[in-house]
From TrEMBL:
This is GTP cyclohydrolase 1. Gene3D superfamilies: 1.10.286.10, 3.30.1130.10. PROSITE patterns: GTP_CYCLOHYDROL_1_1 (PS00859), GTP_CYCLOHYDROL_1_2 (PS00860). Its EC number is 3.5.4.16. Keywords: Hydrolase, Tetrahydrobiopterin biosynthesis. HAMAP family: FolE. Pathway: Cofactor biosynthesis; 7,8-dihydroneopterin triphosphate biosynthesis; 7,8-dihydroneopterin triphosphate from GTP: step 1/1. InterPro entries: GTP-CH-I_C/QueF (IPR043133), GTP-CH-I_N (IPR043134), GTP_CycHdrlase_I (IPR001474), GTP_CycHdrlase_I_CS (IPR018234), GTP_CycHdrlase_I_dom (IPR020602). Residues 40-216 form the GTP cyclohydrolase I domain. Coiled coil: none annotated. One of its GO terms (molecular function) is GTP binding.
Amino acid sequence: MVADPSTSDYTNLVTSNGYEPAMFDPGVTLNRATKARIADGINEILKAIGSENLDPQGTERTPLRVAEMFDELLSGYSIDPEQLLNGALFDVEYDQMVVVKSIEYYSLCEHHLLPFYGYAHVGYLPDKKVVGLSKIPRIVDMFARRLQVQERMTQEIASFLNTLIEPRGVGVVVEGTHMCTVMRGVRKQDPRMITSAMMGSLLDNPATRDEFMEHLRNPTL
Ligand SMILES: Nc1nc2c(ncn2[C@@H]2O[C@H](COP(=O)(O)OP(=O)(O)OP(=O)(O)O)[C@@H](O)[C@H]2O)c(=O)[nH]1
Ligand SMILES: [Zn+2]
């Protein structure tokens, strides 16, 4: 993710439109040099659209804003899992299913850089270990705030939890509305995609999987 400032390409890019690294905040994920490259790219897009079609005052700082925006929207690349978890793994005797549902997420599709968003639902069957409740949405965000396809994001959340908690089973169901199929392309108003990743007993045992799915179906729970 981080640009190499020593390459001549980089030097040409930052100087061509006048966006110097120093103009940017220090950065959450992207360093200042990378943000300057992004700003230069956005400037090229604006130039291609043509100054006659743009409001010069409104768009003057747009390249800088977009670069800062990507820094925020791609922050999932720079999360340190250790720091995210902050030791919140607890030994317990509890051995029934844990479900955390309706976790909202916002991601960007890697094909068009347009948002996709919706809800992620997570369930696991612990084996003497549970994770702090708030850490599950944090884990969802860590994978959502990257360039993604929904299937990979779903799998990554499940695999991460599986390695972390070593449960008897884990399941992740994600619902997503993709703006690249809503506002362009096929232009369908509400095409929702559902993806799932089941592991361990949630994959092997139909009754366990049904229990999880029943939790997702029940609107009052
Ligand atoms: N499976 C999957 N496909 C996705 C996701 N996000 C976007 N896509 C699809 O990725 C595909 C890219 O297809 P292309 O034909 O290369 O791109 P395109 O010409 O813009 O395609 P259209 O969207 O059909 O106009 C499209 O079918 C998108 O709907 C995702 O998370 N998962
Ligand atoms: Zn897309």
